[in-house]
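Thread title: Can someone regenerate the structure for this chain?

I was given the following input by a collaborator and told the matching structure tokens would be attached. They weren't. Posting the sequence so someone can regenerate them.
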Amino acid sequence: MAVKSNLTNMVVCLTATCLICSAILGVVYAVTLEPIAVTNENILKASIGQVVPEGGEISAKMELEVGGIPSEYYVSTKDGAVEAYAIKSQTNGFGGPLILMVGILSDGTIYNTSVLSHSETPGLGAKCSSDEKFLSQWKGFDPSAKKLSVTKDGGDVDAITASTITSRAFTLAVENAVKAAAALASQGENKQEE
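Best answer:
Regenerated them for you:
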């Protein structure tokens, strides 16, 4: 004899299914939490290594605001003097958050940039992390001698083809990091004067 379907049976079956699925998700979350944290930490360390000159001593993580958003930065020192800052900067691109690590030398020149994460359109805005022509223009970019905006807006940054919004967001993230580095450098000078 088959079990007759009624509301009680349906509620019990649905509740059991939800509890089993929740337990599986909880186990997967617990098992993957540490490996994900380790991977993210390794990506961050590699990114810092890309955006500051080799041979310097990297500080521990320090907090600051970049473009009005709480963020973090690292200082690279050599022979006791500040050589560069590695500043994490976030803006919104076309597809969502665009998070960069920007390396800025003590003279304000951009040493390099590295994309930590993005949600840009594959084949278009996603090129912000792979287009060598776009990425190489940031190496040695001097914001005091060049205008930090895309050429379409009268600046000196060549945008990624068909990805002006992403290019503008990337440029804004770099600009916010440059401003944060300038503020950090002026704080350092004020401390030395005291």
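The CA atoms of residues 177 and 183 lie 10 Å apart.
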